[in-house]
Amino acid sequence: MTSSVHSLIQERVRRGPGEPAVVSGSAVLTYGRLNARANQVARLLRSLGVAADEPVGTCLSRSPDAVVSALAIVKAGAAPVLLDPAAPLERILAQVRACGVRVLITSTVGCDLAAQLLPAVRELGVRAVRLDADRHIIAGLPADDLEDVRVTPDSAAHVVYTSGSLTTPKAVVSRHESVSDCVALAREEFGFTADDRVAWCSSPGFGVSLVNELWPALATGATVLIPDAETLLVPQRLRDWILQERITVIHLVPTLAVPLCELSWPADGPLRLLLTTGERFRLGAGTDPPFTIAITYGSTETTHITGRLGRGESVGRPLGDAPVYVLDESGERLPDGDVGVVHVGGRRLARGYLAEPALTASSFLPDPFAGEPGARMYRTGDLGSIDAGGELVLAGRADRQVKVRGQAVNLDEVEAVVAAEAGAGEVAVVAIGDDSRVVAYLAGVDGSAVPDLHRALAVRLPRAHLPAEFVLLDRLPRTVTGKVDRTVLPAPRRTSSSSVPDPAGEDELSGIWCELLECESVGIDDDFFELGGHSLLAARMILEIEERRGVKIDLTAFYERPTLRALSGLVSAATQPGNVLVRVSGPERPLVRLVCFPFAGGGLSAYASWGDLLPDHVELVCVQPPGRGPRLDERPLEWVAELVGGLGPKLAADPHPRTYLFGHSLGAIVAFETARWLRRNAHPEPAGLLVSGSAAPQTPVTARAHLLPDDALLAHVGALGGTDQSLVDDERLRPLLLPALRADFAMHETYQYAADEPLECPITAFAGSQDDEALIEDVLGWGEQTAGGFQMQVLNGGHFFIASQRERLLWLLSEELEAEAEKVS
């Protein structure tokens, strides 16, 4: 066996510890820092009793932390179990149980499911290591290399669940020899060098992310760069990112690779190699991008890289030591041209399926053609033949497995899950369309039960497996032998059951939806994904809106509320003519800018008097939301993403290098999301984030004051103490106050936090000693949202200490702003 992956990476560390290893936005992790952090986490795992070859879970989004996690587990002599943070919680827990995971590495900000996952795994007796919350413990451990790590060629390198397995999860155990051979292959066949800049685009829950992207790059000394999710899904933005970041190697599923290749490219661009796997690859006529396209054939069980494809029917010849055989049902080799089941041999085969000896024995067979004792071959389930040139030509599957947006989906298993949830009637599941949408046909099922069925399936099935449509039939068609005849099932017709859109802007948006979703009509409250949409169609929708309306919509914001009504609000906010930023005071050329975000029901008046107590060199700018003050005639916004979508571009259009964002209560959440919007859209983060009277964004909000009757809502506002009681009691002003108040409370109480990388800017939090709305322990959670330093100040008072402790608060703010101004001089 060639050297293990972690020893190759350690060698690269010795050669250049200061060289960049992983880059995500503005965050750069050098080889030295990557190695040191991985060593510290590995020692923590050892202290928790993690043994050699033990499966250790890792559930993190694509991030530097995910790289640290995987490398640390390998350095501890264990095997990372790659869990997809985008998978349903029940699926993750089932995999944790099936693998016997005792320790799981995750992060409260690097995993969207962390709030539900952490208590759930604790109930299973699993110890969770949180890379953010446990950072102080980790930082106190030795950072030098562990000397007693011993791995053999057959040691477990990682464990990953095959994407097609649902009813009987199959955990594939890859071997160190297999992975090391893939690293060597990347150098020999694909020319990986230390000068490469390799994009990490695959889900961290898939083995391909390790063996095709991370390990070949890091073991060679290259730099790994991580695009954000929105960039990855929009071909034009991905191309621009590739050019901007000088990416040389990228690995994409065909559904992402094909539209990227068909864009216009500069002849002297940095990209030299695009790798893709899976489905057949077809480019439009005349498409000839200025980089090499290598289409590889393989599977999790064969450590992914088996054959190098051209652009025709052939899948090419084997790469390295990976003999390919086409066999008949009795296991005999077939003559060239005859179709049989494809088998793959060689060193890159996985060890087998974890804790499934019978399944392993039936899939990993003795190789009688290798001429070596103990040689094995894997039965792929693909049908194929060897052509006259000695190359493999695929001819479908021996089972009902298909590829849906790059993921293997076993339709029989999806059918079994749908039937179990439906409870009664008959079910047939097929894949249709060029993008292989999964469609479920139901007979003898009440149509009113379909929404509940869809919600139940969404909990159990990964998105690629989830039926995009449900077609109700009186009975399923059958052949003369009584089997379901899937070939004559009627094409689905998508229709809407919700209200029609308004005839203005929403009508144009509904037209875009109908084109993309191939349906006759959509309703204003229809869910894009329940109508059959998926991530790639959502990206195309964003581009269509940009071309037709001239506005850029945040894809992440759309995912939070994927309805036509919410989308219309995002478009409206992005084109909002109102003056959302108002300059209150300060010099023409300020040293520091302070942008203040109001609390629920507040506006410009909340901070208008602050200028008198701030340093002279500070410019005070206030956010003026619609529905109050000079914008009283405008519709109040009910969604954080709507306000941020209109505000972010305005801040970006007038940047200041020393901008601080301050927000109280709801304003703190809006300020935080504005900082994240700036980062997502490649603008500088603020110099600092100042939050007041607000629990950390990851803290669930349980209040529902926005649903209260008018009198009860006003009484609630009066009890909080932030609004002049005479205004609340004035019957004439109620019609003017209530719309903005109710909208603001709805904005706060329906806010859905989405985990992401911590901000780089420092965060200072201010808490009230008697604040029942934002408890001190919840305010402390803001520290998990920054990698740039955190501090907290506690002031006397309740929720609106911002008023009762105004002078004290402004003195503390001024101190921080003065310190920033001193950096200029």
Fold and architecture overview:
- The protein starts with a helix and ends with a helix.
- 34% of the residues lie in helices and 19% in strands.
- The protein is globular and about 90 Å long.
- A seven-stranded mixed beta sheet has the order 6-5-3-4-7-8-17, with helices on both faces. The chain has a seven-stranded mixed beta sheet with strand order 26-28-27-29-30-31-32. Strands 15, 16, 18, 19 and 20 form a five-stranded antiparallel beta sheet that branches.
- It is of the alpha/beta class.
- The chain folds into five domains: 5-294, ANL, N-terminal domain (Rossmann fold, 3-Layer(aba) Sandwich); 320-397, Luciferase, Domain 3 (Luciferase, domain 3, Roll); 401-488, GMP Synthetase, Chain A, domain 3, CATH 3.30.300; 505-574, ACP-like (Non-ribosomal Peptide Synthetase Peptidyl Carrier Protein, Chain A, Orthogonal Bundle), CATH 1.10.1200.10; 581-822, 3-Layer(aba) Sandwich (Rossmann fold), CATH 3.40.50.1820.
- The mean pLDDT is 84.
What would you say the CATH architecture of the largest domain is?
3-Layer(aba) Sandwich
Low-confidence stretches: none
For this structure, the quaternary state is single chain
How many angstroms separate the termini?
A: 59 Å
Main beta sheet strand tally, sense and closure:
7 strands, mixed
**What's the arrangement of strands in the largest beta sheet?**
6-5-3-4-7-8-17
Cofactor: pantetheine 4'-phosphate
Organism: Nonomuraea endophytica
GO molecular function: phosphopantetheine binding
Protein name: Amino acid adenylation domain-containing protein
